Fold this protein.
Amino acid sequence: MCIRGLHAAGLPSAPDGVAEDNWRYALEVACLIVGGDRYQAAGDDMGAAICRGILNANFPGWRERVDIDVMRRAAQITQNAIEEKEWQEALRSSARMRLPASDLRAWPHLKNQAVAHRRLQCPVGQGGFHAGIVRHALNCLAPEFSDDASSSIFYIYDCGSERRRHVDPEIRKVVAGRGVGKPLDFLFLSHFDRDHINGVPLLLHETKGLRVDTVVLPYVDEAERLMAFGKAINRSKSAGSDRFFTDMILDPVAALQAFGPRQIIFVTGEPGPRRTPEAPPVHSPSSPEDGRPYWKAVSDDHAGAFGFRQVSGAVIVDNLSFQIFGGMEMGGWRLVPYVERADLDVIERFECAIEILQKWDRGSFQKKTRDLDIRKELITTYQIKVAQAYKYAAGNRNVTSLCLYSGPAAPEMAGAIDISPGAASANLAKVGWLGTGDAELRSDAAIEQFKRHYFSELPFTSTFVLPHHGSINNSDPLQLFSDVDRFVAAAWSKRWQHPSNQLVSQIENLDRDFRHVTAEPGTALNEACVVFWP
């Protein structure tokens, strides 16, 4: 259905006496009604059902809101725009576009293979909690977290907040929506800061939470974990009494294995001058053989990865992507981590400071901290010294952080339908999401490396979550990724000035959508789309 003038050339002007928003509303309703009638007359029951479904879901009570004469006029404009020859041409030209849900050119493509996706940036204040679900789009326009686990992939990126009273209710909502005891296919943890991980024990609670299959997090050694502890103590002395946090600092594999995951995957990032354990090769991780949707992990060889290696209780890899529903083939989805590593000089300064404060031999840090008892002693008896060493070595800088891209496979061959929150049409299937944890993306070198890793994904990224809650220390206002449609800051902290007014002003100058997700329920960002491969 080529709605001439409604999408390509802009909406017709509202009739005299009709408010512009009511006229836009009437035209969108008319598109769906006329489109449904046209599909029905052509024997296309699926197209008609889709139109009815969108109408009922997105425009409830339209009969009461729109005057009957206004509705007739809108319907007549829509009818006049329908010409079969133009319609077929419109279908061909829109096959690899992103279109709004009210544009009927997109829906006929759902007869082909399609994937539906929903994602939610939860309102947890100063922290991070993002949930997403992917499934085949047959009979499913926008999946819910409660969708059958046998046909969907459910993932979470970070789960924590500076204040537990903000994150715990959101965790309970997500678990209730999914169903207690239901599978969580992937849990991605960006880094070890408490405001990104302190909700994990509730999320994965044995009787109140979800069953996690695969946990993915950045590989960091004893020095970086102790740095994370020192940073936390500098902010709050109560960090030392957070059992899960201290367990993660001491031994992350043991801490996570307590929740029964099938596998734990450490991602090291770009090969370089860092210390990673020697380990034998192992087969690449994949989905469980229980009839659930298929996925596989692929080592990212073009980025210099050496494949998967087995370490104690976990798998380690330099770079990888998760290919879901076929992966790089048409009809799939991809989850692509990227690790932005801490400066090795900062880590070595921290080690040196601990050696001096503890009166250890120079160069003995690594050997000594391999001993679990010594690590325990450092975070209990000597936690103030650990905090002092961190402040000396790093100031208030962040350490290694794992970013995550979520978007369609083979997007250059795909088209997309934006269901919510609403975006203008685009000439490509631009519906991807990029979360950045607390990565430092301010220096030219860091930005260049980030762009190189996500070279194929950035053109298809619609939503970009600003690193470190929108801190000015982690982003350069003059080098924002301006091609995205929407920037998000998950933050609620006057103490840290998050998000930065300078960043927000620059986003406004770029004429991009900005969403500040706080602890207020109304600030949650709920996004949904359908991707098809014509």
Notes: DSSP finds 17 helices and 19 strands in the chain. The two ends are 17 Å apart (CA to CA). Residues 1-10 have pLDDT under 50 and may be disordered. Residues 126 and 163 are 8 Å apart (CA to CA).
